[in-house]
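Hi all, a correction to my earlier message: I attached the wrong file for Phosphoheptose isomerase. Here's the right sequence:
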Amino acid sequence: MTKIKEIIQASIQVKEQLLGNEALLNSITAVVDIITEAFTKGHRVYFCGNGGSAADAQHLAAEFSGRFYIDRKALPAEALHCNTSYLTAVGNDYSYDVIYARLLDGIGQEGDVLVGLSTSGNSKNIIKAFEVAREKGITTVGLTGMTGGLMQSLSDYLLNVPSTDTPRIQESHILIGHIICQLVEEKYFGRTA
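and the right structure:
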């Protein structure tokens, strides 16, 4: 029982640090505006991650393409890892490091937004995707851990959770993602739940 309480308390402490970080909160607000503007102008939002962060990327994409609180039309958002035939072919024929970059190069357009989730900020396949995004005029949003890793310099907007503990970072990524989804939905559709 004590260990369970310690884990819950650790999660709460990270979220309290988020709550008190005005710069991070301002960055979240800016990302809400950027994503809303992208949708308003007919652009798309792409998500990518690895392992648990891939699951989180898929989760957040579904909040836009499905719905969050409001019964409304679908928004054009997708996770880049959902086509296993593509992933295994490119991973086998080229390299796992280019799975996101290659797909983004094929489908991404100037004005789109790419959200990359990496607790370390050092995932090679996300870094390469961010490099392609920069070349194509696609806005990049990095959800990382404390330092931001190598993604820090490639992120137009860095949302770096103040922790080095992977599970606590991922829990906060979902919190931040849900905040963004809710506020974009409200702003884009002009109504609340």
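Sorry for the mix-up. The longest helix spans residues 166-189.
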